[in-house]
Hints:
Elements: H1 10-14, H2 16-26, H3 31-35, E1 41-44, E2 59-73, E3 80-87, E4 92-98, E5 112-122, E6 125-129, E7 132-135, H4 145-158, E8 160-163, H5 172-185, H6 195-201, H7 206-214, H8 219-250, H9 261-269, H10 276-289, E9 296-301, H11 307-320, E10 324-328, H12 332-354, E11 357-359, H13 365-377, E12 382-385, E13 399-404, H14 412-419, E14 426-431, H15 437-443, E15 448-452, E16 462-468, H16 473-488, E17 492-496, E18 499-501, E19 504-505, H17 529-537, E20 547-550, H18 556-567, E21 573-576, E22 589-594, H19 602-609, E23 619-625, H20 632-642, H21 646-656, H22 683-699, H23 707-719, H24 721-727
Parallel strand pairs: 4-6, 9-14, 9-15, 10-12, 10-13, 11-12, 13-14, 16-23, 17-21, 17-22, 20-21, 22-23
Antiparallel strand pairs: 1-8, 2-3, 2-5, 3-4, 5-6, 5-7, 18-19
Amino acid sequence: MTTATLETPLDGVVGARTAKPLAKAFGVTTVGELLHHIPRRYSRRGELTPLAGLPPGEHITVVAQVLDVRERTMQRRRGSLLEARITDGTGTLSLTFFNQAWRARDLVAGRRGIFAGKVSEYRGQLQLQHPEYELFENREDAPGADQLDEAAAKAWSETPVPIYPATAQVPSWTVQRTVELALDALGPVDDPIPAEILRSEGIMPLGRALELVHRPRTDADWRGARESLRFREAFELQLALLDRRRRAAGEPSTPRPIESAPLARFDAALPFELTGDQRAAGAAIAAELAQPHPMHRLLQGEVGSGKTLVALRAMLQVAGSGGQSALLAPTEVLAAQHFRSVVEALGPDLASEMNPVLLTGRMPAAERKRALLALASGTSRIAIGTHALISDNVTFFDLGFIVVDEQHRFGVDQREALRRKGTQPHVLAMTATPIPRTVALTAFGDLEVTTIRELPPGRQGIETFAVPEIEMPRRAARVWERAAEELVKGRQIYVVCPAIAPGEAETPSGEEPGDAGDAAGEQRPIANVAETVAELRARPEYAGARIEGLHGALPGPEKDRIMTEFAAGEIGMLVATTVIEVGVNVPNASTMIVRDADRFGISQLHQLRGRVGRGEHAGLCLLMTRAEAGSVARERIDAIAATSDGFALAEVDLELRREGDILGTAQSGGRSTLKLLRVAEHGELIQHARDVAGALLEADPELVAAPGLAELLARERAAGHIDNLAKS
Length: 728
Ligand code: ADP
Ligand code: MG
């Protein structure tokens, strides 16, 4: 066999029949990709056990001799059953194999071997179904053969057995066998990481790490191998992110000077003082906009912390030298609201000068045409819209600055498409979903991060209560009484439901819904907008209030109308899905009721809560749930009720969420980006790897002395892998 490299196509090494199902199940097509399919865990075959008195339910390993073998066709199911009985002199045990009649060739009466599996009981007889086994060479006549067998058996029983992520079509042991074939065929492996770094970090060369992670002889083998591979992952990722940041920062861009007449006028008319954090963030952004290189910055801060205001001031700086800005919002509702509040914040004079335009997918043709013209000619300095802004027929006169609101809702490809409408415009991504530092480093490692922690003064705060409906029916009833009291005081109320109508879920954020099965007593369907509207309208205590439903399936103009009427106070209760989640700003709304709150993620609930308590009235957030006490779903809800600090919640979220969810679903297609690295656990490692990568790039920016890494980065750039990661 010719020796393979990590790039060798897998089918050339293991054959198409084996390779194809692996490609389908795990997306692995080369030897390297297969060898990066890392075992999930390792099991032991276990202590050698005498057959007498076997414990059912346990994993055991026995050394025994085959007594007899029978094959029969099954009556109930199609297929054959091979049954072998083995004995070690203290007892007997039967081995069963379905549809594996060929094993009769190995398992012949008289052969000795070692057998491992889980003991089960069938009609009073102990058995192992589909056990692993290894038969000894037939050397009964050789002196001392038994001792030899025992020693081999002991070694075999103590070797860690890799257990792979598997599917029904490709079980772990198939992966294991294919991996062994690939390892056997593999020649010397070129290690992209320079030897000095391997030495200083004390990590194994790549070839050795791959061998030991798949074929360890001891636990120390695989532990060391995994640590080494994990460091590589963190290091290569951080290197790619830092490289990307460095390249982006080196691109030329139009400087937008700090002195700006429109901004000065805006500041002079501002009815309040900027908070300290707003000033600091504003100064950092202003300085960067004035540079001849594009800004790439993430602005994170609690809902209502005043990020949009910071962004608007930056737009006015850009407008000062004639440049245009575009604000990209994830939903029509949000784009329309941004538009209204920008127009209002600018005041009549500045608004007519800046001529902001709204651009969404569902505008009347004439209006749309006017907007497009204003942007192409440069008479409009500010564009606000949904992804309609990205469409081909939108051109800008001089697009200098892009603001992406709720950045995690967009893919990098979308951000890039918008960026291409200008020449290296500055980019400010905003998020109200606080991100723990390690996640920020991993997901947004190519961006500078600015955080606003301070809220504008005078906010009344929000009280949050968990309402476990099953344990506390009285408290649940009280929710609706409280809502009535708020209505009487002239306040408005949001009621959020996970679904639109019975059986119709809506999770527009792309966020994983909460642990679905946890809701106890599935007799009532998941709370939905349609039924909740009907229920609430039927209640006498709400007779005087207008109650409307809002969800993503409504036509755009209808959504806008309802939102506008709610903002104007004409609607008392808005029953909605999470379309109202981000950014919606109605200061008179005091109460947020979330039904079946366990269906939402922590950050989503925190966002929802941020919709109330935005004005002079204290906010109240009631999280109704049927999830059982002690479930993860309840832990999430209790965590939110216990703290209003979004950053603390982000950490809790990180702990409670299953790994992988953190970086979103973006990774699911194609190569899964993170394998051994868990942002929740490996914060220190990530930081350290970033330092090492930074030092290397500092000393050798083009990686001349590390051609393997240079090539790796070039490949990643071409394939856009880190883009995928940053998408989350
Ligand atoms: P975010 O975008 O972070 O959710 P916004 O910029 O929309 O926050 O601000 C929320 C509300 O607070 C807006 O009505 C805004 O005008 C107001 N606001 C912003 N900054 C301040 C401040 N420094 N003092 C008082 N109110 C502020
Ligand atoms: Mg906002």
